[in-house]
Amino acid sequence: MRTADGAVQRWRAAGGPVALKAEATGLLHKAAAGGVVLDVDSEDGVRAAVGRFAARFGDTLRGVLVQPMVSGGDEVLVGATVDAVVGPVLTVGPGGAPPTRSADGATCSPSPPPTTPTAPSPTPRSGRGWPRRAAPRSATCCCGGAG
Questions:
Q1: Is residue 91 within 8 Å of 138, Cβ to Cβ?
Q2: CA-CA distance, 32 to 69, in Å (whole number)?
Q3: pLDDT top residue among 91 and 58
Q4: Running DSSP on this structure, what letter comes out for residue 30?
Q5: Which run of H or E residues covers position 57?
Q6: Residues forming beta bridges with residue 138, ordered by sequence position
Q7: Does residue 104 contact residue 94 with C-beta atoms inside 8 Å?
């Protein structure tokens, strides 16, 4: 959504509390940059959040993502980009907090990510989250390219 009115329409369509997420040029981790507002359940709340995003991100704000709140389960960080040297890069790890490169580190694999549940996975099988989360914090898999 590009406007507060559009975000309000999406909130109404959701029928309950929503998460609002800023979509801005160069924004890599929305929560760490103040680009996420959770449990918004009023028109005034939606408009206020969109206003804060506009003030914080200015001309780089491309829109606002409006998603229904979901309870239970684990948060997951998923990111994708194309690196000039290695090609497509997929990052997967536990979400909900700013990603870090801790002792678990980031790992790189020359194989593509699995496309089916039974395909071999380049995801590392170690780290604080394994086996429950099946990946260390911010595991990065480089899919093809140089290597």
A1: yes
A2: 19
A3: 58
A4: T
A5: helix 43-57
A6: none
A7: no
